[in-house]
Amino acid sequence: MNILIIEDNKKIATNIADVLRLENYTVDAAFTGQQGLDSFFSNSYDLLILDLALPDTDGVDICKEARGENAGLPILMLTARIDLDSKVEGLDSGADDYLTKPFMMDELLARVRALLRRTGDNKQNKINLSKRIEINFSKRKVFKDSKEINLSPIEFRLLEYLTTHRGEVQSASKIYDSVWGSNDGDLLFSDSLKVHIANLRKKLDPELIKTVKGFGYMIEEDGV
User: Fold this and answer.
1) Each residue of 132-186: pLDDT tens digit?
2) Candidate from 57-61, 120-124, 168-172 with smallest mean pLDDT
3) CATH: 1.25.40.10, 3.40.50.2300, 3.30.565.10, 1.20.1250.20. Which one for 2-121?
4) What residue spans define the domains of the chain?
5) Is residue 52 within 8 Å of 59, Cβ to Cβ?
6) Which of 74, 82, 83, 116 is nearest to 102 (CA)?
7) H/E/C letters for each residue in the chain?
8) How many Å apart are CA 51 and CA 111, to the nearest integer?
9) Tell me: domain 126-218, CATH 1.10.10.10, correct?
């Protein structure tokens, strides 16, 4: 597996690279946004670890560019910012997961393994939730009646998570942890979850996502 790290703190980047190499990953490290983009467009990577704050450009812009070039590439965003707006901005730009500095290397490795495993499970995979709704995981696209439906990155991640766990009721805390990278139960996250559930129902099907009162949400095994 080839991993690209774009992180301006050379000590942090080197430490991450050393730990990943001990786990038998092939790693390239770049210390500016431009260096990172040069490596990204010159090589093929299975995962991008991206710092949100870079000296020459915004990590959000790099994330959007990388996502536009490779829709299925898993992206783990790193940041020292702990505010909710920064986290949501990173996820909305297309990041798959979010890790706040300082962090333990064991946690980073767990996030890396989870992202690569999920990508491997979904690679080139298409799922029909019904005769009308199809999800293409590798291209991160959703179709209804053969017409592409425009979903935000978080809406897609939410749909992907519930689809992967079809037939199972998922609590709000589990959804927060997987989709937003947080299970703190913050009211803002709670409201955001309800809004995104409502958006998916409106865009795809009102009956697609079931609310199980007192427990959470689910997509039934046989879809809609």
Assistant:
1) 999 988 788 899 999 999 998 889 989 988 998 889 999 988 888 778 765 554 4
2) 120-124
3) 3.40.50.2300
4) 2-121, 126-218
5) yes
6) 82
7) CEEEEECCCHHHHHHHHHHHHHCCCEEEEECCHHHHHHHHHHCCCCEEEEECECCCCEHHHHHHHHHHHCCCCCEEEEECCCCHHHHHHHHHCCCCEEEECCCCHHHHHHHHHHHHHHHHHHCCCEEECCCCEEEECCCCEEEECCEEECCCHHHHHHHHHHHHCCCCCECHHHHHHHHHCCCCCCHHHHHHHHHHHHHHHHHCCCCCCEEECCCEEECCCCCC
8) 15
9) yes
Name 37's Cβ contacts closer than 8 Å, sequence gap at least 6. Answer: 62, 65
CA 182 to chain centre: 13
Residue with tokens 């536009």: 68
Please tell me the distance from the alpha carbon of residue 217 to that of residue 215, in angstroms, as a whole number.
7
3-state secondary structure 23-60: CCCEEEEECCHHHHHHHHHHCCCCEEEEECECCCCEHH
Q: What is the pLDDT of residue 125?
A: 75
Q: Which of 112-126, 181-195, 200-214 has the highest mean pLDDT?
A: 200-214
Instruction: Locate 113 and state its tokens.
Output: 């393994």
User: What residues does 133 pair with on adjacent strands?
Assistant: 144
